[in-house]
Amino acid sequence: MFTGIVEELGEVVAVEQLEDASRFRLRGPLVTEGARHGDSIAVNGVCLTVVESGDGEFTADVMAETLRRSSLGALEPGSRVNLERPMAVGGRLGGHIVQGHVDGTGTVLERTPSEHWELVRVGLPAALARYVVEKGSITVDGVSLTVVEVGDDWFTISLIPTTLALTTLGHKGPGAPVNLEVDVIAKYVERLLGPNAQETGK
């Protein structure tokens, strides 16, 4: 489990295209410290498994399903990425519960700068819109954020200077894709209150 508090702005070193997957080599000296084969690291909000690590870099295999559901397929050498290690047992939950299971991708629509923050409007896939609520939590490229406003197919977020400086969200302009993970609690509530609950009269 992750918290959506990015630890490091890393970089894609190499991408190897396989028949039905891709292998990424990424640089992240902080998140690879003590990393071993089989450990998890979130890359732009996608939970990936470490295959090899050393010298501040790690490799991870990305299967076709992940490439289809996320924006990782658009990454190339030199791309910057948000990196986060899983939360340790007993650690602080600084953001919100983030699984690293991307639900889909959105698109940056516009950015409105202010003196101390920046308002960003993000296009939202119709299938995810029902899970996004004003003042609720959403993960954008692995960053835990609070929703400011919600439309039928968009939402806005406010980015503070720290987020602008230390994550990919400070550099993505209109048209850029972003990974989205909605609040998992909302999905469980929907499931519990769906047709099965109605059939039992609850």
Automatic annotation (TrEMBL):
Every Lumazine-binding domain range: 1-96, 97-193
Pfam short name (any one): Lum_binding
Keyword vocabulary terms for this entry: Repeat, Riboflavin biosynthesis, Transferase
Pathway(s) where this gene product acts: Cofactor biosynthesis; riboflavin biosynthesis; riboflavin from 2-hydroxy-3-oxobutyl phosphate and 5-amino-6-(D-ribitylamino)uracil: step 2/2
InterPro entries per the UniProt record, alphabetical: ATP_synth_asu-like_sf, Lumazine-bd, Lumazine-bd_dom, Riboflavin_synthase-like_b-brl
Reactions accelerated catalytically: 2 6,7-dimethyl-8-(1-D-ribityl)lumazine + H(+) = 5-amino-6-(D-ribitylamino)uracil + riboflavin
Keyword Repeat: yes
Enzyme Commission number(s): 2.5.1.9
A GO biological process held by the record: riboflavin biosynthetic process
CDD domains assigned: Riboflavin_synthase_like
A GO molecular-function annotation: riboflavin synthase activity
SUPFAM superfamilies given in the database record: Riboflavin synthase domain-like
Keyword presence, Ion transport: no
Role according to the record: Catalyzes the dismutation of two molecules of 6,7-dimethyl-8-ribityllumazine, resulting in the formation of riboflavin and 5-amino-6-(D-ribitylamino)uracil.
Subunit note: Homotrimer.
Name by which UniProt lists this protein: Riboflavin synthase
Organism field: Streptomyces filamentosus (Streptomyces roseosporus)
